[in-house]
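Q: Hi! First time doing this. I have a protein sequence and I read that you can turn it into a structure. Is that right? Here it is:
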Amino acid sequence: MNWAVSLRLVAAEEFLSVTGLVLLLIAGWAGDKAARAITWLSVAALAVAAVLVAPALTHGAMGAETSAFFGQFAADSFASFAKLLVYGAAGVSLALAPGFFERFGQFRAEYPILGLFAALGMGIMVSATDMLTLYIGLEMNSLAAYVLAAMLKTDDRSPEAGLKYFVLGSLASGILLFGISLTYGFAGTTNFAGISHALQGTMSTGALFGLVFILAGLAFKISAVPFHMWTPDVYEGAPTPVTTFFATAPKVAALALTMRVALVAFGAQMAAWQQIIAFLALASIIVGALGAIGQGNIKRLLAYSSINNVGFMLIGLAAATAGGASAVLVYLAIYIVMSLGGFAVILQLRDAEGQSVESISDLAGLSRTKPGLAFVLAMVMFSLAGIPPLFGFWGKFVVFQAAVAAGLVPLATVGIAASVIGAFYYLKVIKVMYFDEPADKVAGSLDPVHGLVLYASALFISPLGYLLTGWLGGLAHSAAAALFHGA
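A: Yes, that's right. Below is the predicted 3D structure, encoded as structure tokens:
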């Protein structure tokens, strides 16, 4: 192994590590009064990291030249695509945070640093080509996330959310680790390529149990049914900027990790995991849609919406083809922008005292009191529902197209039928905003940073977004090809 080459391939991780440690020292010396400055320095660090990883995607990097540290880390185009989404989502989430926490006098200097280290862990996750690297990256992300969920001490729901996330996350990590140990026992290696080679032919019962436990642990991280129980409570209880972060960056990392584990480590046993993924997809679509119908809190509704959308993404993974993987990445990119736009609106929903407005009933008549906010939120809702001509429709279309091309017509048919259920609760929010009498709950002016995120996301998910389909599809295809290189 060439150490110089390996260190060059992990340049983004090295930069984030050093930056995080330096910012931690600054936070220790300057205290919370430097929180806003540290936040913008963290956003700048994520932007630099994105620049460092982008060439791997544009050049279609794959194969042995992207492998570092004895095959434990891959800086290929797939990892680059996922990291760009992770760093972008994390950066926007951090930029949206200062205004929220400063209203409560709870903006801590540690907040952006935890976000930075969580992004570092997620970068390791999406590049992991060894079970040990996978676990290190996942735990680095999770440990930071547990603290972030409990960050708002003035709200009792926040520590409760942090505790629930910690307990259930620890259980999921234990399940995942048990699956890794079983897989190691029957494959004799923790390297993804080695596992794929060892599991050629008939799969033993022990190795199958290892696969099931690993998928169960990862299903928790992507909040797929039946491992979704933490999502509504954590989304509602965590501070809204943290919920914005949870709904975007970790979702990318966990789903990308699941794709690499399924298609690379267990690529020789697609028949073994395809049925599991198909079940997770259908269960998530149906439970997410039905669970959202009765929700009165907008953050809980978006939690069930995220479960529902994960189900659609898993349909693309169930196809087990390069086209399916590419479709998942396209859907993921569009979903991240929709989520950031939706939560940017929610962060602006506050009453005259500065308290957050989260009840859907309190949004009544918002179109007459805050027409700009209502318009963007309506666009996000229509796009999440997959209603053309908004860009959210394209994500669903490419996923179902990939499933049909792979011969999974029944799965695609049920998914399309279930997506109609989801349209109901999205339209309910729009009906409350546009047709109910004004509740006059929402007050305050639009923050410049929030306004930039709002209107940029609205522009992306508008019909103009279709101008990007060729470019986005090309990048996703290049990224997905890295997973099937040498298969």
